[in-house]
Please model this.
Amino acid sequence: MSDPTLAVNTDMSADLWNSAAHVLDSNWSHDHTVPSRRLYPHQWSWDAAFIAIGLAYVNPTRAWRDLRSLFEAQWPDGRVPHIVFDPRTAEGDYFPGPGFWDAPAYGNRPARGSTGLVQPPLHAVAAWEVYRRAASHGTACAHEAGEQLAWLYPRLVAQQEYLTGRRDASGDGLASIVHPWESGLDNSPSWDAAMSAVPADMTLLDRYQRRDLEVADAAHRPTDTDYARYLGLVVNYRDGGYADTDLVHRHAFVVECPSFNSILAAAELALVHIAGVVGADPEVHRERARRISTAISEHLFDPATRTFRSRDVRTRTLSPARCINGLMPLLLPGLPAEQAAAIMAEAVSPRFGLPEQTGLPAPSHDRTAPDFDTLRYWRGPIWINVNWLLRRGMLAHGYHGEAEDLRMAMMRLVHQSGHFEYFHPDTGEGIGAPAFSWTAALSLDLLADRSVPAYARAA
Ligand code: 2M8
Model:
């Protein structure tokens, strides 16, 4: 438990800033940033977005380079791969690696250069944040950053068109994910109901060796049964040529996630601004943001519990699990006020117990659920990236006091425990990979925020 009365003072801020900048610097690898040197030695898609937001403060050239490296690996159909493999990293250093995914060659990219899955499309939001930061430094910087935006814009649009087109498996205007890894919230209980229908072929674990258990504690990582299901889903999608036609009948996991879709809508809103800079029509983005937001409100909200849940497209049922992804529709400024209030009620309840109760940011799963797990991946521990998104949502809906408490709680936690991948939801102890890039990057953004005079309250 963290002390909520402990203010973040100037010395702590300087420590946090310097350590965060150091983590980002040491995780830079040629043309991208790795999430963690040991556990994740390639480039990950939504990590790159969070990382760019932090790099904007300490090395804007790298922020743009990171985003460009990712989009240089974009597939011709518009999908942005969830991992871009670094050819300098040995096949055995990460599993499932390039050989397992066996992605085709395209454009000037060699075969086996990436995975065929996606991750939440936060990149337009990131690009806009990097641009905003540069533009605050004067016309010359704004001009240079505008050129980066112009390069990215058609690629960001192609990503949105892929997700809102081929991935609209239900026809209800929402993007489906075809693997829990696409959510970024990999092992969340949000997928348990849909995953229970996915066959677990345990022989896959005889044929392929898990590497995560060599570099991380088994008590934190997915179970073997879950892992067998993960691999089986990849094999099925891969063997179907990563095609998205008729997914509902051909694929065992087709799910609409409230967090993924909220980020999809937030990306359209960022594209409204980006279109303004690059001289494109913003209206198409405004309209698409409105459509996605309405679909989230209509199809992913459970009026009985007043919560947002993931929806299994194959059975058309909402998951019973109350997870952090259900709080993410707060990112949508157009969310009806009563749904925004319902999210805030859930966020401050004992289920997610925001700083006022615990002094800590929100856990990844409902604290009161029988399957709340303090250690296992995305099943209870605290993650900074989703709390950073939640805080943005609070600001979008005018919950300024709560947003500031959450910002302080995140900074306190990272300052006390270090730039870990995730944190114990009771003790705040850092767990998972140390020197984790998005924790460092987002710490810089939280520190740089001067919207509330936090340092005036320094002890
Ligand atoms: C975790 O996911 C990877 C698979 O993509 C893994 O478990 O090996 C997740 O936390 C995901 O959100 C994150 O992008 C990735 C790299 O940080 O690690």
